[in-house]
Amino acid sequence: MLKVADLEVCVGSKKIVKNVNLSVGHNELHVIIGPNGSGKSTLLSALMGLPRVKICSGSILFNNVDITYIPPYERAKLGIALAHQNPPSIRGVKFSEIVKNMIKRCGCSDFTIMSKMLRVDDLMNRDLFVGFSGGERKRAELYLVMLQNPKLALLDEPDSGVDVESLNIIANAINSLVRRGSSVILVTHSGSILSRLERVDRVHLMFDGSIVYSGIVDEIIPLVFKYGFKGVVERIRKS
Amino acid sequence: MRDNLLEIIKKSAPIGPDIDLSKYELGEPRIHSSLNIIEEFNNITSKLGIEDTSKFSYIQINENAMYEALKNVLGNYGVKVVPLKKALEEFTYAKDLTWRLVSPETDKYTAATYLYGGELGYFIYVPPHTKVPIPIYSCLAITSNKKVQFAHNVVYVDEGSEAQVITGCLVPHGVKEGLHIGISEFYVGGNAKLTFAMIHSWAEGVHVRPRTTVNVAPGGEYVSYYVIYSPVASLQTFPTTILGSNSKTSSTSVIAGSGSGVYDVGSRVLLSGDDSSAEIISKVVATDSSEIYARSDIIAESVGRGHVECLGLLLSPNSKISSIPSITSKKPGAILSHEAAIGVIAEEELEYLMSKGFREDEAKSVLVRGFIDVDLRGLPPAIKYEIEKILDTIARSVVGI
User: Fold this and answer.
1) How much is the mean pLDDT over chain B?
2) Inter-axis angle of helices B347-355 and B360-372, to 10 degrees?
3) Within the 45-104 window of chain A, which residues sit less than 8 Å (CB to CB) from chain B?
4) Is the Cβ of B369 closer than 8 Å to some Cβ of chain A?
5) Which residues on B lie below 8 Å from A81 (Cβ)?
6) Chain A contacts of B360, Cβ < 8 Å?
7) Partners of A155 in the β-ladder
8) Residue B39: its H or E element
9) How far is B397 from chain A (nearest CA, A)?
10) Highest mean pLDDT among A213-222, A230-239, B95-104, B381-390
């Protein structure tokens, strides 16, 4: 479904993502872990085509279509959705207005079930993300992703800054996304959500802009908890 | 006074581009005691978001004033809606309300209205302790080129009463040049409330010079909404509201500048009586090569509260916004504040919406709509709906969709 080849991504004049190769199949859940500043969010931004990042080289194929340089709304139309790590607060724009627009655009029929699952009903009449708590912000953002019925969901740290209750809700929603057939790339630096997921197909460790390891959860996560990201990377490089 | 007014007409007004009044034609003022809705009129009021023309109580097309619509319904509440000229002939109290809050000697536009306007414009009177359940609609339109239209409007909401007045001023498509001068004198009685909404939809060659003063008696409330969303040649207005003790006002303006127009729009409030309060909010969006001056001025002559919020969004590199908030206190204990900001659409917000599938122009439109969103709570549903429709139109049109 997604094939990323030799991707290099710059922000301003600085190269943040270096020579990334990544392949995600249909209905697979991939997790990208790594310390803060390792390029995880920049990689997701590049996959979504956000203008703030610039693809310097490499290519992105989505269902055999080259999307390397197409704008984000075209990627959204193709079925790619991004849950932003820090969605912006937008005054005057009601959450419900965006929800309605997306339901109309994407033809989502079970939005009521999703809104209950993510407990966002009470947020509908509020300005988009204005004054939302950490948990509300993440749940609302994930709800918007689910409304898109994405073929590929890019989830940027949906587990950061949330309490245990919200974490469980978010994990359930991600499990639901996968059960519905979406492919998912989940970025996390804490890993706290991983034990709540029904299935993780592949884990990638990103460090200093590059993917330095790809494998399975049980192989890498215990090492990360034991040695930290830097320690694991040193061991990988030595071996 | 006539000689003095003739002298004043020769002088430029202190604010706004000067206009040569001799370039415009004025016909003979006429009053029609039935509402002769001409076919053309039905087509043009949709520019105001008002499709049902039967709602109008007073219509003035160029120098032709028509009234009577809804007369019976409003008459049940003792409300009078008549051309000012007729009111001056029939009601002795009308004379006491005319040219009291706005002096004919204010500037060349008031002087010209006094001398040549024929006292066209509407006179609305709401008797004491009457809550009028339906909005009172009026419309002022210029339908021919190079016309000057004078309108002198007087509204009196008597003690303990409540009324909503919505006025649309416009030109239909095809009118390229014109001049509209509107004099408004509004009286809000003790513990009364007047909600006034004005929607302007002009054209690139039309100059507009409203002159307005509102007097709010103790315990009264004046709520004003002003929206302009069309090009103009120039618009200059700086209405004044004078607040008695324990009275309050809120003034909300949405100005969407386009074309090469000069929009000089302000609002001034005098906190005259103790414990009065005022809030002035303006949301300004500039496109094309428009120039917008957003003025606001609160002067505390007594112990009261006032707040000014003036926000601008610059959407074109050729446009200009100048925000001029002013607060003046002459009384210890008065609390005044202001907040002003001019910005552009935030890239982060634009990017966010684009990632949700909005095209760039759609995303901009959503953000502009959010920016110009104003608190319409408390408005009657009919007026609220109409203003929201206009704001939706603004949000689409400023980004070209």
Assistant:
1) 92
2) 120
3) 48-52, 71-73, 76-77, 81-82, 84, 87-88, 90-93, 97-98, 101-102
4) yes
5) 356
6) 71, 73
7) A83, A186
8) helix B39-44
9) 18
10) B95-104
Tokens of B344: 């552009």
Q: Where are the beta strands (DSSP E) in B134-191?
A: 136-141, 147-157, 162-170, 177-188
Delineate the domains of chain A, giving CATH numbers in brackets. Answer: 2-238 (3.40.50.300)
Gap from B321 CA to chain A (nearest CA, Å): 21
Q: Is A5 helix (H, G, I), strand (E, B) or coil?
A: strand
Contact assignment for A105 to B352 by CB distance below 8 Å: no
CA B317, CA B288: separation in Å to the nearest integer?
8
Shortest Cα distance, chain B CAs vs residue A76, angstroms: 5
Pairing of strands B56-61, B136-141: parallel
Of A88, A93, A106, the CB nearest to B366: A93
Which tokens in the block code for residue A211? 């993917």
The 10s digit of each residue's pLDDT in A140-163 is: 999 999 999 999 999 999 999 899
Q: What is the pLDDT of residue B384?
A: 86
- Rounded to a whole number of angstroms, the distance from the CA of A92 to the nearest CA of chain B is 4
* Angle ∠(B319,B325,B330) on CA atoms, nearest 5: 165
Question: In this predicted model, what pLDDT tens digit does every residue of B316-348 receive, in sequence order?
Answer: 999 999 999 999 999 999 999 999 999 999 999
**Domain segments of chain B as ranges:** 1-237, 254-344, 347-401
Instruction: Tell which wins on pLDDT, B352 or B31.
Output: B352
Residues B395, B160: Cα–Cα separation, whole Å? 38
Bridging pattern class, strands A202-207 and A210-215: antiparallel
B132 pLDDT more than 90: yes
**Chain A residues with beta carbon closer than 8 angstroms to that of B355:** 48-50, 72-73, 76, 82, 84
In degrees, rounded to 5, the angle at the alpha carbon of residue A107 between the alpha carbons of residues A104 and A108 is 110
Non-local CB neighbours of B142 within 8 Å, separated by 6+ positions: B61, B62, B149, B170, B171, B175, B178, B180, B206
Report how far residue B177's alpha carbon sits from residue A129's, in angstroms, rounded to the nearest whole number: 46
Say which residue the tokens 């009261």 belong to.
B304
- Residues listed for chain B: 401
pLDDT band at B394 (very low <50, low <70, confident <90, very high): very high
Find residue B124's DSSP bridge partners: B81, B155
3-state secondary structure of B358: coil
Closest residue by Cα to residue A157 from A22, A4, A36: A36
C-beta separation of A149 from A108 below 8 A: yes
Cα–Cα–Cα angle for B286, B43, B377, rounded to 5 degrees: 55
Can you tell me the ipTM of this complex?
0.95
Tokens 């301003």 sit on residue: A12
d(CA B101, CA B116) in angstroms, rounded, equals 19
